[in-house]
Amino acid sequence: MGTKTKIAVVVREDLAVWQKLNVTAFLSSGVAVGCPETVGEPYEDASGVKYLPMFGLPVLVYSADAAAIGQAHARALAKDLAVAVYTEELFTTNNDEDNRARVRAVATDELDLVGFAVHGSRNAVDKALKGLPLHG
Hints:
By secondary structure, the chain is an alpha+beta fold. The protein has one domain (5-42, 50-128): Bit1 (3-Layer(aba) Sandwich), CATH 3.40.1490. Helices cover 35% and strands 24% of the residues.
């Protein structure tokens, strides 16, 4: 972990608020599981109650239209970043097996992305997401 890496989530700007939150949560879970080095130590309060660990570095959330998401996704893949994806079709499924089948059925350049997350070196993430605004 450390300040040399970065986590970023990109969500399509025209989604409903609940969809943006849902996509961000799912994509963040992909980074946590796929890149365990991003997760810090468990928390504990003064009463001794234990809590789950969270990311040990900030998560920046960006928004973009569909075309910009596609371009940034292609750049992220070209830079060999760790990537999680969420496609429009995943709003119609209700389990992980169907989600994976929906993504598997579509070629990379034809994915109907509503969002993706990346983890990698700050420099590579910044280059992949160049020009995208932070979510407002």
